[in-house]
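TICKET: design request
STATUS: open
ATTACHED STRUCTURE:
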């Protein structure tokens, strides 16, 4: 079986920053593709395509990079394992209902972009639980471990959780006379990270010439809620980047600006690392 994730660690841990890409997985199990009613473009429409490659330089800056191997359409790592959708999983009682489940975006998604159904019917409860056991739990065990390691070494942990969003997702927040947002920073309206971390990210992207908005239309989901505990020195920010900046959404291929955006993101990550200067490693105190 394909490993649940890829972990690229720096030669030496130099920062409390942890970089993650939970929705860029590209391993589509054959049985899943056979069960889906979508073509390749359709089933990949919810994938944060190539985001792991855009943040690939994080280890060279002294920060670990955790990247999912399985796609979001198969299992969503930014959901609670309890967010089971009875509309797609057989044998699930309607004991938990959230807006995400209602819209088909539970831990086992029922739909992809624009509400298009993934499956012909339902999957079994056993299949859903197997996906969670084999992929969700190992990924989050690894992420929890990285956060604990950073906190033990530096007195804090700062998770930068990178995502991409369809260009059309920004239509709702575009305003006449203002630059169309290209980056959305989500900290659950201040609940998941210290303000100076958001300031460093915003200043970094603005310095690269990109337009930035906070918490709209994406404020963060399970990952920021679960790992963002500022009072304990754990911070988490969801970073959404317009796919139109680096790829053709119709062909699902990077375009000419891909390398330029990768360099820009690397500089922004570096800026956050500088803004959280590792403090003094606890082992050296």
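STATUS: resolved
RESOLUTION: sequence designed for all positions
ATTACHED SEQUENCE:
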């Amino acid at each position: 079986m394909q490993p649940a994730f890829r972990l690229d660690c720096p030669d030496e841990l130099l920062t409390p920053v942890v970089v993650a890409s939970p929705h860029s997985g590209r391993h589509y199990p054959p049985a899943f593709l056979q069960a889906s009613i979508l073509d390749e473009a359709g089933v990949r429409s919810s994938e944060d395509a190539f985001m792991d490659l855009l943040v690939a330089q994080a280890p060279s800056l002294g920060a670990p990079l955790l990247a999912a191997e399985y796609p979001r359409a198969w299992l969503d790592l930014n959901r609670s394992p309890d967010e089971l959708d009875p509309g797609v999983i057989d044998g699930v009682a309607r004991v938990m209902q959230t807006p995400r489940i209602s819209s088909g975006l539970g831990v086992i998604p029922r739909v992809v972009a624009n509400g298009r159904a993934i499956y012909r019917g339902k999957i079994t409860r056993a299949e859903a639980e197997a996906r969670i056991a084999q992929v969700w739990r190992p990924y989050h065990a690894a992420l929890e471990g990285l956060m604990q390691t950073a906190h033990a070494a530096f007195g804090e942990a700062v998770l930068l959780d990178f995502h991409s969003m369809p260009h059309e997702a920004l239509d709702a927040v575009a305003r006449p006379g203002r630059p169309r947002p290209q980056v959305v920073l989500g900290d659950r309206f201040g609940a998941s990270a210290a303000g100076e971390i958001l300031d460093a990210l915003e200043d970094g992207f603005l310095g690269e010439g990109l337009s930035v908005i906070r918490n709209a239309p994406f404020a963060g989901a399970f990952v920021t809620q679960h790992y963002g505990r500022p009072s304990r020195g754990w911070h988490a920010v969801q970073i959404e980047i317009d796919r139109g900046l680096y790829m053709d959404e119709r062909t699902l291929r990077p375009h000419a600006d891909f390398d330029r955006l990768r360099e820009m993101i690397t500089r922004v990550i570096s800026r956050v690392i500088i803004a959280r200067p590792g403090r003094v490693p606890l082992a050296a105190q």
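CLOSING REMARK: The chain has eight helices and nine strands. The chain has one domain: 5-78+124-284.
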